[in-house]
Amino acid sequence: MRYTSAAIEALIDAFAKLPGVGRKTARRLAMHVLQQPRLEAERLASALLDAKDLVVRCSICQNVTDRDADPCRICTGQGRDQSVICVVESPVDVLAFEKTAHYKGLYHVLHGVISPLDGIGPDDINIRELLQRLQPEEGGEVREIVLALNPTVEGETTSLYLSRLIAPLGIMVTKIARGIPVGAELEFIDEATLSRAMEGRTTF
Amino acid sequence: MRYTSAAIEALIDAFAKLPGVGRKTARRLAMHVLQQPRLEAERLASALLDAKDLVVRCSICQNVTDRDADPCRICTGQGRDQSVICVVESPVDVLAFEKTAHYKGLYHVLHGVISPLDGIGPDDINIRELLQRLQPEEGGEVREIVLALNPTVEGETTSLYLSRLIAPLGIMVTKIARGIPVGAELEFIDEATLSRAMEGRTTF
Q1: Nearest CB to A63 within list B4, B10, B90
Q2: What is the DSSP string of B98-148?
Q3: Tens digits of per-residue pLDDT, A162-171?
Q4: What is the structure's pLDDT at B96?
Q5: Which residue has the higher pLDDT, B4 or B171?
Q6: Is the separation of the CB atoms in B65 and A25 below 8 Å?
Q7: Of A1, A2, A3, which to mutate for an interface test with B (greatest number of B Cβ within 10 Å)?
Q8: Does B71 touch chain A (CB under 8 A)?
Q9: Measured between CB atoms, does A96 come within 8 Å of chain B?
Q10: Percent of chain B with pLDDT over 90
Q11: Rounded to an integer, what distance in angstroms lies between the CA atom of residue B98 and that of residue A30?
Q12: Is the CB of A49 less than 8 angstroms away from the CB of B46?
């Protein structure tokens, strides 16, 4: 059974295409929009188009940034350690590290990981741009590359690939520690993580 | 900590204003929009504005309908019993009844219920429009009003108010049955519902 309005149906269909939004949620969102002032709908509509029109990738780190702020605020930031680059898979990972307010180096966003099964090879993600940043003529002051990809098979594969490419350049390659999360109980940690935590033990 | 793009922040803020969408979900939706082709964002943006611009209330039943389909498809539908009007609180309730494909009469959408605590009186919902439909000169063929408001205090109050207004017009006023839902187990039904079910028992 369909709504009595084609415009509402179209809105429900459009909402239902978003990830994690089913028909029922889409219907509730559509009814909410109908009840709100037009200004609210306009705000969301223009934010959608602005995000597509104004957001570009930073020419240095490939993270998302505004068209009029390229290079991005992190790449041009004062007090950033220009000699360390943390390599991540996607922009949300940059946000996660920035929230810690602990890491002070730069980033490089690959926008994906090597995944042969999905047809994604080294040339499909921003590896070339990373190597470009490591060339001596580009300032050449990079001392360390921190690999911070997700602990999946594809992430590990990409880390291995990158380390083999970068090590010959005489730059230190590290990866973030795998171990038990803060606040977790040993009893409920999976075997793989426990093994990694044991392997990676440090002096007290 | 904020994203490196003001446009993305604006989109996250706009998404987060939707009901049931928190910051994390809004962030995921925004990243999804960034990865989709521009056409998808355009489709949602224009659906939002169309819903505000093209959707009006049916001049008869007050349900939502397209500007170019007023009176709505139900009010003008063939094979609809013009002598029964089901009074509901909101457009989603019409949809719920239409999904049953069982009820064949007309509807009247109040767009709210009387709720003195929220400052909503009888004049703030579409009661006047309902009474207008019951006037003899308006065709005057309405035989029965079915009250199908939600079983809340406000819904019951509104039902009582309507029944007192309409009964003097010589029109039958009924309300939908309260009882145990199909498929429920008696053991887990609350006392109020069980009492209503017992009161409303019918011959087998």
Answers
A1: B4
A2: HHHT---EEEEE-SS--BGGGTB-GGGTTHHHHHHHHSGGGT----EEEE-
A3: 999 998 988 9
A4: 86
A5: B171
A6: no
A7: A3
A8: no
A9: no
A10: 53
A11: 18
A12: no
B17 — pLDDT class (breaks 50, 70, 90): very high
Q: Which residues of B touch A66 (CB under 8 A)?
A: 4-7
CB-based contact B5 A54, cutoff 8 Å: yes
Kindly give the pairing relationship between strand A172-175 and strand B172-175. unpaired
For residue A65, list chain B residues with Cβ-Cβ distance below 8 A: 4-5
pLDDT digits (tens, 9 = 90+) for B69-122: 888 889 998 889 999 999 999 988 998 888 888 889 999 999 999 999 999 999
Which of A52, A62, A75, A92 to mutate against chain B (most B CBs within 10 Å)?
A52
Nearest CA in chain A to B95: A3
* pLDDT on residue A41: 93
Interface residue B44 vs chain A (CB under 8 A): yes
DSSP symbols for B30-75? HHHHHHS-HHHHHHHHHHHHHHHHHEEE-TTT--EEETTS-S-TTT
Which tokens in the block code for residue A60? 């240095």
Residue A115 burial class via C-beta count within 10 angstroms: exposed 0-12, middle 13-18, buried 19 and up = middle
Q: Does B120 touch chain A (CB under 8 A)?
A: no
For residue B203, CA distances in Å to B174, B198, B200 come to: 18, 12, 10
- Reported as type and span, the H/E element at residue A145 is strand A144-147
Q: What is the DSSP letter of B2?
A: -
Query: DSSP 3-state assignment of A162?
Result: helix
Hey, are the CB atoms on A44 and B46 less than 8 Å from each other? Answer: no
Cα separation, A174 vs A163, in Å, equals 8
Please tell me the distance from the alpha carbon of residue A194 to that of residue A189, in angstroms, as a whole number. 7
| Pairwise CB contact (< 8 Å): B54 & A90 | no
B170 to chain A, closest Cα gap in Å: 31
Domains assigned to chain B = 79-175 (3.40.1360.10)
Residue contact B74–A4, C-beta within 8 A: yes
Q: Which residue has the tokens 């070339």?
A: A128
B134 vs B142: CA distance, rounded Å = 6
Quote the tokens at residue B181: 């839902």
